[in-house]
């Protein structure tokens, strides 16, 4: 997915996994059925651009009965899952768009077993 210009004025692309891709395809089909004139995949019932993702997220969170959860927590959860799965910090940095690995290293403490596995590679 081409993200366009970031807050650091760089362009970046982010690969989508199959679940994310199929979600977008499904959402596009829904949009085509209900608001075929809209250029937006995620749009209001009238086909207009959603002006505030945070507002929409807060509304969905409230309807689901979830409290104390911010949209940025989704990003943190993604990073935590990637670290726990043993994905290299440099790759996580690139996926999250961190300009340096210092920010990404804040997640490293979540997977102490990865450090042990790294040392065990030397035994092979």
From TrEMBL:
Signal peptide bounds: none
InterPro entries hit by this protein: DNA_brk_join_enz (IPR011010), Integrase-like_cat_sf (IPR013762), Integrase_catalytic (IPR002104), Tyrosine_recombinase_XerCD (IPR050090)
Superkingdom: Bacteria
GO biological process, one term: DNA integration
Keywords noted in UniProt: DNA integration, DNA recombination
CDD domains xref list: INT_Rci_Hp1_C
SUPFAM superfamilies: DNA breaking-rejoining enzymes
A GO molecular-function descriptor: DNA binding
Stretches assigned to the Tyr recombinase domain: 1-120
PANTHER family cross-referenced by the UniProt entry: PHAGE INTEGRASE-RELATED, PROPHAGE INTEGRASE INTD-RELATED
Name by which UniProt lists this protein: Tyr recombinase domain-containing protein
């Amino acid at each position: 997915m081409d993200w366009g210009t970031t807050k650091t004025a760089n362009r970046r692309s982010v690969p989508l996994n199959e679940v994310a891709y199929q979600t977008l395809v499904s959402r596009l089909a829904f949009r085509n059925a209900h608001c075929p004139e809209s250029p937006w995949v995620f749009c209001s019932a009238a086909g207009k651009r959603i002006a505030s993702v945070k507002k929409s997220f807060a509304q969905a969170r409230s309807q689901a009965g979830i409290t104390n959860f911010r949209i940025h927590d989704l990003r943190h959860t993604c990073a935590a899952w990637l670290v726990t799965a043993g994905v290299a910090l440099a790759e996580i940095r690139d996926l999250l768009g961190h300009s340096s690995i210092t920010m990404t290293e804040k997640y490293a403490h979540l997977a102490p077993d990865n450090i042990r596995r790294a040392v065990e590679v030397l035994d092979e």
